[in-house]
Write a structure and sequence with these properties.
mainly alpha, de novo design (two linked rop proteins), globular
């Protein structure tokens, strides 16, 4: 009787021991499935980005080769892709010196960048994922710079350009989700650093304005 009870207890313990690894394996499979879904989303947005950049490159080359060319995305005088894509800011982001070997259409940089992200997405290495995150973050900053040029310098609304901005935001959100899922980067730490940097520049700007106001008051007093 005693031996039978011992055997029953041993079977129960074995069953409990088998359940724990099974749960871990199930959790690992769910994590892998989530990462795979995010990878597919990232690759999809990058492919759409390649297509949009390729079309923008076609419009730019056609507008330069054929004066008076009107693209499908030229909707009005202030919504003209060809006008934006033939401006001085359409090559080398407007900051690379004229005549440089790197002064190529921004669209080419975009195509290369999207293809690079697709390649990096196939890896799950921690350092590769971190590199992917920071590259995508730099691309998002570039999108903000180009959006500023559209709104305040060129005063135009390029449909293709705005589409790539939206694509970049969507892609960045997917990459952030991937980073959080894999736990390879402390996003909150970098958000805190950005927040502290913004506060520093605001304080510096306030002090600069205060110093300027003090100098003006002293100059007015000296003039009196």
């Amino acid at each position: 009787m005693l031996n039978r009870e011992i055997l029953l207890l041993a079977k129960v313990d074995d069953g409990a021991a088998e359940k724990v690894p099974h749960r871990k394996r199930a959790g690992g499979r769910r994590l892998c499935n989530m990462a795979s879904n995010l990878n597919r989303s990232i690759i999809t947005t990058c492919i759409i980005g390649v297509l949009a950049s390729t079309y923008a490159l076609y419009v730019e080359m056609a507008a330069e080769a054929r004066p008076g060319y009107k693209a499908m995305c030229d909707l009005s005088d202030h919504m003209s892709c060809s006008r934006v894509l033939t401006s001085e800011y359409s090559k080398g982001f407007g900051i690379i010196p004229h005549g440089s070997a790197f002064e190529v259409p921004n669209c080419i940089y975009g195509i290369i960048f999207y293809c690079l992200l697709i390649f990096l997405t196939t890896y799950e290495d921690k350092r590769i994922v971190q590199l992917q995150f920071f590259l995508a973050l730099g691309s998002l900053a570039t999108s903000v710079y180009l959006a500023y040029l559209l709104m305040f310098v060129l005063h135009d609304l390029c449909v293709v350009c705005v589409s790539t901005f939206i694509i970049n935001v969507q892609r960045q959100s997917k990459i952030i989700s991937k980073v959080n899922r894999l736990g390879v980067l402390n996003i909150s730490k970098y958000i805190a650093v950005v927040s502290q940097t913004q506060r520093f520049f605001r304080a510096a700007s306030f002090l600069d304005r205060a110093a300027g106001g003090g100098r003006r008051r002293s100059d007015d007093g000296a003039a009196v």
